[in-house]
Design goal:
Strand order of the largest sheet: 2-3-1-4-5
Length: about 625
């Protein structure tokens, strides 16, 4: 009886499996290409799914597409697949799929898909350090960004090109492109993509030493990831926050955030994410002199990065092993890992990696007591470092150079003393000591001069990058970020003191028609002329900045409507004068202005005040342009 009951239960279970399989088969058989397109679009638009989850779904869809020879659906799904592979740093697999997909996109005449595949191509080239063709590809994509109808796609182009320019050390171009990406994503109302832009901006600020700014961006990006329940995005942001805390010499917080990032990667079964986190944790072990722990972690993740095809994490893993072996005085193993680093150095654009490797070479030579070779390597490295953006690395190289120089000089002096003793045993000890003191004093003066020079270079570069981040590249006037920061300061001051604060927004009339008729170069010339006119005419305590495109934001303190009208007229007269001097085929460039004055009952935020000024600008346009509306 009991056996019969057991057999009956087994039969029911097997029957349910068979019926389930039949149902799935029936569902697949009734799915047509249009329905499959809808499924792919849903995957494409889900911002909170991890790339690994997307890959599982896409592989099943691609199999169905190939079975039914649905080329268009297959192209769309496969494009999402290579994008997801990039996110998981599976560079080799993405590269293998790319060329056939680009051929199919051309065959089916799918320009939007082709742009997305070109972005994949750009990311692969950057990851592998393939310099050839990258500037041309960047330029071609930026041209397409200005013509595509979709703000979402335009944002993706500007973001990926901005990230590529950052990796090429073109910070000015990167910041300009990322600003356009931010505006495009906001227009598309894509909160997840806005978070990615903030993440990239944080990376740039980390590279420039602006750790506080980087952490501010990352906090905003993390809040977006949490809001969207995007664990994959959160893991990336936590990873970068760890790097920021490390730059601030807060290794405890750095380790804490990296462990959080790794835990999220574990929950997502993201092997590459886990490997990246372990790589950073191993680097923290290096700093804390836990050499064996570091070697164990590096050895575990090395095969994963070899498989992925990404040059940077593999280089850092090998470099970390070399440092650990060097600290343990296992010099042959250290040299072996340094030689492996050298083979992939050509795939890394940033010269900082060459400096780091040369430093290891010098340390190995020093450990082998070959002081001359160590000194020569670092002397060459120091010269090379003068063209590198990282002054902190240069200072470290200089410090090591002095250490080796002192050791070499000590060795030379010992030889000289021995030789002098053999030639003349009656050497005057007091004269030798006096000479030594002069050498020490001279060396000290040279050292002070070198340190002073390095501090000067560091201050100059920091000021340069700070100015670059707050200035509009074209007009050399304050950019959107700078003028908004200033406006916020004045707004908060008005709340406290109830002083009069007035915001004005100026828009150049018919600017698009002017661009279309005379070309973008003339349009740029008009923008530069307008900025010059403003600098020449506004009062010292008023401020202006480029708000976006042909729009300009003005901040007036304790200014009456009559005074603003007079400023408006002065700018107009000065602009006409500058344009006439430049001998253009036109002279009558006009602009409209909307003005709003702070009121404590209606303007709870600066955004409210700017919106009221913007509404008045629209009224000025509607009333015939070339005028002010208060």
């Amino acid at each position: 009886m009991r056996n019969s009951l057991i057999l009956g239960i087994i039969f029911l279970i097997l029957s349910s499996f068979v019926m389930g399989d039949l149902a799935v088969a029936q569902e697949n058989s009734t799915t047509d290409e249009a329905q499959l397109f809808t499924q792919i679009e849903l995957i494409d638009n889900k911002s909170n799914e991890s790339p690994l989850e997307m890959l599982k779904k896409l592989n099943a869809i691609i199999a169905t597409c190939k079975k039914n020879n649905w080329q268009q659906a297959c192209l769309y799904a496969s494009t999402l697949k290579v994008e997801s592979l990039l996110s998981t740093t599976d560079i080799n697999e993405a590269e293998k799929l790319l060329k056939p997909l680009m051929t199919l996109a051309n065959k089916l005449n799918k320009p939007t898909i082709l742009i997305r595949l070109e972005l994949v191509d750009l990311n692969i080239k950057d990851s592998k350090g393939l310099f050839e063709g990258i500037p041309e590809l960047q330029s071609r994509l930026l041209e397409k960004a200005s013509t595509v109808a979709s703000p979402q796609l335009a944002g993706e182009i500007y973001h990926d090109v901005g990230d590529s320019l950052y990796q090429s050390l073109d910070y000015t171009g990167a910041l300009l492109s990322l600003n356009q990406a931010y505006e495009s994503y906001q227009l598309a109302n894509d909160l997840s993509a806005v978070g990615r832009v903030l993440n990239t901006l944080a990376n740039i600020n980390n590279s420039l030493g602006n750790t506080d700014v980087a952490l501010e961006y990352l906090q905003k990006s993390l809040a977006i990831s949490y809001e969207l329940n995007n664990k994959f995005g959160s893991s990336i942001v936590l990873f970068n926050m760890s790097y920021s805390y490390l730059n601030s010499d807060n290794i405890k917080e750095a380790r804490n955030h990296m462990q959080q990032a790794m835990q999220l990667s574990i929950e997502l079964n993201d092997d590459i994410g886990i490997a990246w986190a372990k790589k950073e944790l191993a680097s923290y072990d290096i700093q804390e002199k836990n050499w064996q722990n570091a070697i164990a972690l590096y050895t575990e993740i090395e095969p994963i990065f070899i498989q992925s095809g990404s040059a940077l994490p593999l280089f850092e893993t090998l470099k970390g092993q070399a440092l650990a072996y060097l600290a343990l005085n296992e010099l042959d193993l250290a040299k072996q890992k340094a030689d492996q680093c050298r083979r992939i150095l050509k795939n890394l654009k940033d010269p900082i990696y060459q400096i780091a490797l040369h430093k290891i070479d010098a340390d190995i030579a020093y450990a082998k007591k070959d002081f001359q070779q160590a000194f020569d390597i670092l002397a060459e490295n120091y010269t090379f470092a003068n063209d590198v953006r990282s002054e902190e690395k240069q200072k470290e190289i200089e410090k090591q150079l002095i250490r080796f120089s002192s050791k070499l000089k000590e060795k030379e002096n010992q030889a000289l003393v021995t030789e002098n003793k053999l030639k003349n045993l009656q050497i005057n000890q007091q004269a030798a000591q006096q000479k030594l003191w002069w050498l020490v004093i001279g060396f000290g003066i040279l050292l002070l001069l070198a340190v002073g020079f390095m501090l000067f270079i560091q201050t100059r570069n920091r000021n340069h990058f700070k100015s670059m981040a707050l200035n509009d590249h074209l007009t050399n006037s304050p950019n959107r970020r700078a003028i908004l920061e200033y406006a916020e300061l004045r707004f908060q001051e008005s709340i406290r003191t109830q002083q009069t604060l007035t915001i004005g927004i100026i828009d150049i009339d018919n600017f698009k028609k002017l661009n279309d008729k005379y070309g973008h170069k003339v349009g740029d010339d008009v923008l530069v002329a307008f900025a010059t006119a403003c600098k020449n005419t506004i009062r010292q305590y008023d401020k202006f900045g480029r708000y976006g495109g042909e729009e300009w934001l003005f901040v007036f303190a304790n200014t009456t409507p009559a005074e603003i009208s007079a400023i408006f007229s002065r700018i107009r007269d000065e602009l006409h004068k500058i344009i006439q001097q430049r001998q253009h085929d036109f002279s009558n460039v006009t602009f409209s202005m909307g003005v709003a004055t702070y009121h404590k009952d209606t303007d709870k935020t600066l955004h409210n005040l700017i919106n009221r000024a913007d509404q008045n600008l629209y009224k000025a346009k509607a009333l015939g342009k070339d005028q002010i509306v208060f």
